[in-house]
Structure formats: structure tokens, C-alpha cells
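TL;DR need C-alpha cells for one chain.
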Amino acid sequence: MSAPADRRPVLAVAHRGDPYRYRENTLPSVESALAAGADAVEVDVQLTRDGVPVLLHDETLERLWGDPRPVRRVTLDQLDELRDGHLTVPTLAEAVKAVTATPAARLLIDLDDPGPAAATWAAVTGLGAERRVAFCGPATAMLAVRALAPEAEIALTWKQPRLPAADLLADLRPRFINPPFGLVTADFTAAARDAGLGVSTWTADLRRTMRRLRAAGADSITSNRIGVLRSVLDGRR
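>> reply
TL;DR here they are.
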């Protein structure tokens, strides 16, 4: 993620890595997305029982790892035993290291609630990676991030056709408004510009949708098909 004010090229953001090639929110998925040309990789964070931020979207391990336990009841050591071949549930620190090893790439951390915010920010600052990460999520989670990190880049996830109230924007100071792609129109992006906001959007997987979003003025597009998105933004077939 980066500042859109001078209308730089649209940013290509990989949704949970490269999930059509590798399991979402794993290191191979993150690394594949970076190799495909992602400007940023979006990941989800949950906390283990011992408070370690790890990459996982769901509250339980059932869907991806076949284990019904909530991740909050599993320690990091126990989680490390949960393997599928070479795949494991990575820590956020491992993902940060993978992204910062690629020049200019960034990590977009999606927080659905305020709970993981403090441990997540501690992991980022512990690696000195403050300038290589951004955050997205609903207002409650992003307000928790802002309280911890006055200068952090934030994309406020927003599911309404009208922009948030001015008071919320003043408190949160987001760099982007982050609606689902169905809400992004030229009028929406114009209103965001007038409010001093860039527009990031999710999750576009069809070429025609990607092209429409670019034409509507989106600054950042998130996709499960990062290679396709990269080709569309670069004007390649």
C-alpha cells in the first residue's frame, strides 16, 4: 500500500497470498504472490492461546487444517505440530520477514476485531517493519490500531455506499476507504477524493471486474488471482 494522491499506478494486492496455487495464509502462498508481482499481500491474523499472532482467517482450524479446535485454545507449540506435508500455520513474524525480503513489497494485515491489535503491532515493531505494513478492517479494529500506532497506514473497510461520518474519519485518519468491489463507482471514488481518501477494494477475480475498477478510479485492487490482476494492470493478456 502507498499514498495514492499523485495517481500512481493501481496497486495489486494478493488476497491471503496466492490461494489458487497454495493454501491461503501460508508462507508458500505469500511467496508465490510476491513472485507473481504483488505490490502487497493481504493476510489475516488470529491469536494462539499464548498470545502469538498467526496467519489464519477463521476462528477455528477446521476449514483449512481439518482440526475443529479454535486457534485461541491452541498454543504455538501445539500449532506447529499441525502440519500438512510442508505446510504449517505461519506466525505473523514469519510473514513479515518473507515480505520485507522483497524490495518495496508490503504486508496488508486484516484485523476483523480489536483483540489481536496489540500483539500484532508488537510483532511488527519488534522486527522494525512499521513502514512495510498497513492495516485494514472495520472501524472498531482500526481504532485500536490507531491508538497503538499514530502513523500506521490504515484502510478502513466500509460496506456502505456513503462515506463514513467526518468525525470517524477525523479520529481514524485512514489513508484509504476499503469497500467491496460492488460499491466502487466513479462517483464513489470522486467522493473519496474530495474527502482526501484513496480507494482500495476487494475481492475482484474476473478480468472485466478488474478493468471496471481501474476505470472507476480505484487506487488498489485485491484479488485471489494475483497473476491475472497483475497482467490486467500491466496491459498484458
